[in-house]
Amino acid sequence: MAKDKQKEYQLVVFAIGDEEFGVDISQVREIVRLIAITYLPKAPDFIEGVVNLRGQVVAVIDLAKRLSIPSKQRGENTRIIIVEIEGLTMGMIVDSVSEVLRLSSEHVEEVPSVIQTEVQEHYISGVGKLKDRLLVLLDLKKVLTPTEIQHVEKVVSGQKAEV
User: Fold this and answer.
1) What is the per-residue pLDDT for 154?
2) Which end of the chain is more exposed for a tag (fewer CB within 10 A), N or C?
3) Cβ neighbours for 127, distance < 8 A, ≥ 6 positions apart
4) How do residues 44-90 score in pLDDT, each as one tens digit?
5) SS3 for the chain, per residue?
6) Are the CB atoms for 61 and 6 separated by under 8 Å?
């Protein structure tokens, strides 16, 4: 009998407020300290603005606002996770980044309907079970709608002309 091959997830783990999240490391380009963000008028409230990241204009969203969960006050541990979604490079502000870990698929479950999280269920791809905690696994492709992604692309391309 053939053995079921276990899939292994490699995750970047971060916190927003009192909740811990994980995203697939393949979607993360880099993690940077909070840098000056240029405000953009008329942008949706969860879009903080844009940053100049080594010559590239990158839109930055406040992930806590997007997920409608309370975050901690920005400080020394606040980070911007630079991600690639649908070919678009974007930054996501989180309260802190704690680790990169490997998690076997046997420790990942689909979202139980009774899960206690304030994050809307369609953003969640699963729940990772660790020894002493649960990790909410986010599907970054679902964090923004295609219309919002187009809006972010327009914002960034408009900024490039002005920078």
Assistant:
1) 75
2) N
3) 108, 109, 110, 111, 112, 115, 134, 135, 136, 137
4) 888 899 999 999 989 999 999 988 888 899 999 999 999 988 788 89
5) CCCCCCCEEEEEEEEECCEEEEEEHHHEEEEEECCCCECCCCCCCCEEEEEEECCEEEEEEEHHHHHCCCCCCCCCCCEEEEEEECCEEEEEEECEEEEEEEEEHHHEECCCCCCCCCCCHHHEEEEEECCCCEEEEECHHHCCCHHHHHHHHHHHHHHHHHC
6) no
Q: Percent of the chain beyond pLDDT 70?
A: 85
Q: Which domains does the chain have, with CATH numbers?
A: 8-162 (2.40.50.180)
Return the structure tokens found at 147.
């219309």
pTM over 0.90: no
pLDDT, residue 3, reads: 47
Residues in CB range of 124: below 8 A, 6 or more apart: 111, 115, 117, 136, 137, 138, 139
Q: Locate 10 and state its tokens.
A: 């490699």
* Residues 6 or more apart in contact with residue 132 via CB below 8 angstroms: none
